[in-house]
Amino acid sequence: MANAELTQQVTEPSRLATWFWPAFDFSRRFFLTLASLPFIVLPAMLPLSSLLLMLPAAIPDETIITESHQRGSAIRNLGARLFALGVGLASLVAILLPSHELAVRLGLTGIQKWVAIAVTAYLLDLVILAAVGNVPLRYNFRNLMVRWRITLLTAIAFTVVVALLTVMLAFVVGMYRVTEESGQPGNILILGDGSTDEVFSFLAYSDVDKIEVERCVLDEDDRPLAEPIGVKTITLGGRPRYMTSKETYAISIQTVPGREKKRFVQVRGVVEPELAALVHDLKLKTGVWFSDAGVRTPPGEKPGERDQVEAVLGAGVAREFGSTVGKPTLEVGDTFELSDRTWVVVGIADSDGTTFGSEVWAKQSIVAKLFSKNGYNSMVLRIDDRGTRAEVSRRAAEMAFHLRTRFTNPKISAQTETEYFNKQSETNKQFLFAIIFVAAIMALGGVFGVMNTMFAAIAQRIKDIGVMRILGFKRWQILVSFLLESLAIALIGGVLGCLLGSLSDGASATSSISSGQGGGKTVILRLSVDSTVILTGLLFTLVMGRLGGLIPALGAMRLKILESLR
Amino acid sequence: MKIVLVLFLVLFVGPFVLLLPFFGMLGAMELCARVGGRLSESLTATLPPKFGAAVIAIPKFAIIILKSIRRNLLRSSLSYLAVFVMVLVITGIWSILTFLDAATSAKAANFKALVTDKFQIPSQMPPSYIGELTREAANLPAGMRADPAKDVMTWSFVGTSLDPDPSKRSQENMIIFFSMDPRGLLNMMDDLEQDRLSPADAKQMRENVAAMQTNIKGIVLSEEKLRTINRKVGDRLKVYCFPGQYKDIEFDVEIVGTFPRSAGRYDGSAILNLEYLQKSLDAYERKTGKQHPMSNRYINLFWVRVPNEDAMRALAESLDKPGRFSTPPVKIERGSSAVSSFLDAYKDIIAGMRYLLVPAIVAVMILVIANAISISVRERRPEMAVLKVLGFQPWQVLILILGEALIVGVLAGGLCTTLAYYGVNARGGIQFPIAFFGKFFIPVESLWWGPVLGAIAAIAGSVVPAWSARSVRVSEVFAKIA
Questions:
Q1: Residue B42 belongs to what domain range?
Q2: Per-residue H/E/C for chain B
Q3: pLDDT tens digits, one per residue of A356-390
């Protein structure tokens, strides 16, 4: 009996240990792996060849390039570390230089350039490793084919993530295009004092004439300019004219035809449409500009009774109006209701991709009357625009500064159009941030998926790894081999994702831009899948593939021959 | 420095924080199953044999499922993390969509109608409209009429800055006021009505209103706004109106209170007494000898609570009568319709979130689970064969696999939304400026979205591999092994 009790006492803890030990042991190892993750994640972004060459600098006891290592004196070890670091950095430079050269030769700038450099460096790195490393590529690819279901599932996850990223980025690029292409470098936007948005701005009719004759003779530091800056003059209709556009802007509420729903329509009244079009660099796609009267009498009606307001529609708003009456777009001659009046389309502006694409243009006097405005909201003036874009921008900035600080009768708010639209891109930044956040989290899902796949692939092929080591493959070749496998899955999915996402190119979407200080504009934009979007998709794919594949590949590399064959 | 801290939290602390509850829940479930097993064993003697066998089988079955999950904890953890992060994104998106849906859907109770300029925004109506519109609403037939004392409210939006220089305007010095009669705060403001607040919050609001009525220069701000402008209750400050709006008008105000913390939707908001705005405009006229340009158009919105849609229609008819409310003409609509019009500019973004982003994330989630379960089934075919030899029915094998996926999915979804509900809301919600909404909070309903979403993804992802496990042929598997 005593023996039985003793046995019971001994066996109870051991049963408990049987339950908890594996979980505890695993948790310990798993948490250690997680804790080492940051140290792996950041170096994992390096080209693999550089990383392999640099690794002995960080972990000299881990043999990677060679099969064994010899412990020497502290100085010798330090020398070996520095040597590894130097060689790694040299290889990094050797990979980045041609990538940079390629980006420069392609004429890429800004973010596009850096994305291109990163993608080229990664691809170049893969080619070098595949060529120099004598990696058993056929073995890896055959394995992908054998496990095609798992490969496919993982690749599809990548496809979905990258396709979504492509569409979301295409949307943001479309928004940036709107803000970039709406402004002319030589244009200055004048608003009422302290106004940041057209809708809250007021300029008296009598004030604007003083502005167009103003000349700037001093620079921002009050030094005389070599040549005074003034408003550009042109000959229009046989007489010299200042190149300015005086505008009344209103946001009207329209009941959507056939529905209870209401929508906002941006209406811009311009005094002389031809002159305004020249200032804004806007052309007509079809039709004509509205007449001097700004209204037309429908056939069979008496003049003045049921006159229709003549309007030129932006291409986007024409599509939007058309979609609600069952047409792809409104055309010249079509009518619509707005602000208790019937409006007739006399022209469609070629304004896709600019804020004007979302506007209805009409005669200023009519718009002012309809919306009870007794002044202008804004005025746009074009300065002398001879010279390069940079020179024109600089002169426009000088003139805007002059009008903002030295012109006080009345005090006005003046800024270059490019500056104004840059400020309007605040919303773009917020959307971009949201997209990066969502994409990063989705990518984490993809990374965990590919990790699962690769851990399983390695677990199934432990014996293969042992055999490969016996056949003479080095540890780093095993690492590269498995990493290439995960990158192949990622690339298949990622490239498909980019292709799928590219289908959204040119699609029309509605959004809003604003400076974040109230106001804002509704814009109808075109999604744009440009080379930056594709390159970003590819970079995203490569990074996901590397992050997902590196830890399992490191695990495969660290397997001992005997252990793996056991 | 902040980036380093965030990176540290995300990379070091994040996975621990996310995985510990998962492991804890798995351990607790297994413990419960084992205790349940012991209890059921002692109970079976008193039960009919068939029923007793079933009672014993359930906890044992649960133990087998939980053991299978912890056999490859790495895979289970990776699948859990993948589902967790995806559910997190969906919860965020759904929280935004749910709020917008609620804001744009008509309410049968507490029916508030909005009177604004008929043809343009911003709506700018003369102050005389307050009295006229109130009279119209009060003179509706019995059963439809509104109480002028508590069923009407006007809003005038006043943009101000702590810095007189417009070029130095920033989020840190800008205060956008709702200028209104303070009484409206107690009866008409959504989510601030006395019957919706806790007794303490309701008292706080009553005190705010009393302070604003006693001191017309008193303002109420959200706590977040106070932090942003670095001021406290009791501080006096001078604010300068945006020259583009109320040119040359400035207010000397005193912070008399804050919104209750529970009124999170008013983060960033501020209330100014309408009487003070009116007096400031009058003072401008006395000082300059001319009317301020805004003095006859500073009422932006007029809210009226009516009992139902019929009352709103009756009011609309009286407002449309010729010769009345013509400068400018006005329209009346449900508050939700007005919000809907503002959101029209974002319709494609909202549609993209609803019909593209969410389904795609669910698809990725299903794929990740399908991937993990497929690998697991593939590796455990001999085990399935042994189970069958031991007498397990195919449907039991199917349930084993589905159960594994279901536990991981439900735990991931449930823990994710619980963390999101408490964590994100405590951090002040999701910042996503859309129309005039800047912040969104995770609704309490998310506590069931998560487990359900995880369960759906788990079942959808594991049904095919589970079916394949169910169909394992014992002879084939053993022949292969042999």
A1: 16-104+346-481
A2: CHHHHHHHHHHHHHHHHHHHHHHHHHHHHHHHHHHHHHHHHHHHCCCCHHHHHHHHHHHHHHHHHHHHHHHCHHHHHHHHHHHHHHHHHHHHHHHHHHHHHHHHCCCCCCCEEEEEECCEECCCECCHHHHHHHHHHHCCCCCCCCCCCCCEEEEEEEEEECCCCHHHCCCCCEEEEEEECCHHHHHCCCCCCHHHCCHHHHHHHHHHHHHHHHCCCEEEECHHHHHHHCCCCCCEEEEEECCCCCCCCEEEEEEEEECCCCCHHHCCCEEEEHHHHHHHHHHHHHHHCCCCCCCCCCECEEEEECCCHHHHHHHHHHHCCCCCCECCEEEEEEHHHHHHHHHHHHHHHHHHHHHHHHHHHHHHHHHHHHHHHHHHHHHCHHHHHHHHHCCCCHHHHHHHHHHHHHHHHHHHHHHHHHHHHHHHHHCCCEEEEECCEEEECCCCCHHHHHHHHHHHHHHHHHHHHHHHHHCCCHHHHHHHHC
A3: 888 999 999 999 998 888 889 999 999 988 888 88
